[in-house]
From TrEMBL:
EC number: 2.3.3.13
Amino-acid positions noted as binding Mn(2+) in the UniProt annotation, renumbered to this chain: D14, H202, H204, N238
Gene that this polypeptide is encoded by: leuA
Name of the molecule in the record: 2-isopropylmalate synthase
Residue ranges annotated for the Pyruvate carboxyltransferase domain, each copy included: 5-267
GO biological process, one term: L-leucine biosynthetic process
Reaction(s) catalysed by this chain's protein: 3-methyl-2-oxobutanoate + acetyl-CoA + H2O = (2S)-2-isopropylmalate + CoA + H(+)
A Pfam family: HCS_D2
Length: 514
């Protein structure tokens, strides 16, 4: 019999620890619903003690999701575990994931705790967590640099205290596959009663080996993988869910386990996460990159036309790249529009939302003959913006750009309800419109990144712009889409400014001590 490989998605927790990727409650709910549709087994919805906002997001996801287990992270402290227990209360199936660092460097320098006290804290946290749920995961942070005897000791102790999943993280992305598989095998062999728990792996990508290391752990007996959509996560990111799932599925001959994932949801979910977090997907990214199934060389194209499997090991449509992605056109009516949104899993909470979205859809259809699924997703991501989150709004823009002349932008912005006008010159049209915005807002933010991607093919495609701004140590990403890339740029810049305006203060579980 083939084992089940539990897919534990931490996009909403570890993924959110990427610079500028902080998400609002509504954004988390949209992603959680997409993960549930994809049949992810466990959704780590956040770190309930990080802030009131995080607590509320975890609670909202716990209340909304029915088919996946909803989990929250908690440091090994009484306050964190109680908060976690409270946050997952509404869940049909709730998990508390408690952790403490176990490597000498973390225990000594970060926690300033002796190994004995670390074991005590872990046991106390797991024991307390069991009062809230019988699904308790324990992680030994920085397991990769921890002494193997100490790991065996702490894992044995937390099994006795009631932990049901034991997670072995490569927190700093230091391992290589042979070593990581070996570590997992040793732990499973040496820890008493190891067959009573699920062994889990959690890998970071600092050396580009997060997926390879995770798969080596699975081959060695791990039956849970912790991963994120698009490999989002701190520094170089976490192991990418889509790559792990497709590797296990495509190389069934090598793995004696399978996931429950509905792979056709992979590409839509990848796009949603990219839009919400403002992290674009690189075109050559495995499985979800725009070029993942594109064949450029004539020899390859010829081979694929003669027999697909000459150069393709997976089918694009199996991971959600639809062969016919044409969604709707200018003549489509409201009911076709509503049905398409439903099919794409985009929630429409009221008739009013549907009506305004439909007006915007018609305006887009006037500019663009064919509307694809991706266009609708971009359109609806703008629709989730509310007056509370949209302090700055673009009302009008006019940009003149001509060879031999300095580009000039004029615009009108709504700032907290009041209209402001400005004009500015720039070295290019984007520079001019950003300067015009800044002449009104005077944000004092630094522009760290500006990128443009075409959402679909064709010269009438919408451009999707990502802007990253930094101010006083805070980093935010903004995104905007439009058939006019200057307008898309202005929308992205304002989206980032709106995020800076709404100050979300939260702490990072791994840099704060218990
Ligand atoms: O990377 C890590 O160690 C973590 C733990 C909290 C599981 O994210
Ligand atoms: Zn991590």
């Amino acid at each position: 019999m083939t084992d089940q490989l539990i897919v534990f998605d931490t996009t909403l927790r570890d993924g959110e620890q990427s610079p500028g990727a902080a998400m609002s409650k509504d954004e988390k709910l949209r992603i959680a619903r997409a993960l549930e549709r994809m049949r992810v087994d466990v959704i780590e919805a956040g770190f309930a003690s990080a802030s009131v906002g995080d607590f509320e997001s975890v609670r909202a996801v716990a209340a909304a999701v029915k088919d996946s287990t909803v989990c929250t992270l908690a440091r090994a402290s009484e306050n964190d575990v109680r908060r976690a227990g409270e946050a997952i209360k509404p869940a049909a199936r709730g998990r508390i994931h408690t952790f403490i660092a176990t490597s000498p460097i973390h225990m000594e320098k970060k926690l300033q705790m002796s190994p004995d006290r670390v074991v005590e804290a872990a046991v106390a946290a797991v024991t307390l967590a069991r009062q809230f749920t019988d699904d308790v995961e324990f992680s030994a942070e920085d397991a990769v640099r921890s002494d193997i005897d100490f790991l065996c000791r702490i894992f044995e102790a937390v099994i006795k205290a009631g932990a049901t999943t034991l997670n072995v993280p490569d927190t700093v992305g230091y391992s290589i596959p042979a070593q990581w598989g070996g570590r997992m095998r040793t732990l499973i062999e040496r820890v008493p009663a190891s067959d009573r728990v699920i062994w889990s792996t959690h890998c970071h990508n600092d050396l580009g080996m997060a997926v390879a290391n995770s798969l080596a752990a699975v081959a060695a007996g791990a039956r849970q993988v912790e991963c994120t959509i698009n490999g989002l996560g701190e520094r170089a990111g976490n192991a990418a869910l889509e790559e792990i799932v497709m590797a296990v599925r495509t190389r069934k001959d090598l793995f004696d386990c399978e996931t429950r994932i509905d792979a056709t949801q992979i590409v839509p979910t990848s796009r949603l996460v990219s839009q919400i977090t403002g992290y674009p997907v690189q075109p050559n990214k495995a499985v979800v990159g725009a070029n993942a199934f594109a064949h450029e060389s004539g020899i390859h194209q010829d081979g694929v036309l003669k027999h697909r499997e000459t150069y393709e090991i997976m089918r694009a449509e199996d991971v959600g790249w639809s062969t016919n992605r044409l969604s709707l056109g200018k003549l489509s009516g409201r009911s076709a529009f509503r049905a398409k949104l439903q099919e794409l899993g985009i929630p429409v909470h009221s008739e009013e939302v549907l009506n305004t979205a439909f007006v915007r859809f018609k305006a887009l259809a006037d500019k663009k003959r064919e509307i694809f699924d991706e266009d609708l997703q971009a359109l609806m991501s703008d629709e989730s913006v509310t007056p509370e989150t949209e302090y700055y709004r673009l009302l009008f823009a006019k940009v003149l750009s001509q060879t031999g002349e300095t580009p000039n932008a004029q615009l009108t912005l709504a700032v907290g309800g009041a209209e402001h006008q400005a004009a500015a010159e720039g070295s290019g049209p984007v520079d001019a419109i950003f300067r015009a915005i800044e002449s009104i807002v005077a944000s004092g933010a630094d522009l760290m990144l500006y990128s443009v991607n075409a959402i679909t093919t064709g010269t009438d495609a919408q451009g999707e712009v990502t802007v990253r701004l930094a101010r006083d140590g805070r980093i935010v990403n903004g995104q905007g889409a439009d058939t006019d890339i200057i307008v898309a740029s202005a929308k992205a810049y304002l989206n980032a400014l709106n995020k800076l305006h709404g100050s979300v203060e939260r702490m990072n579980p791994q840099t704060e001590t218990v």
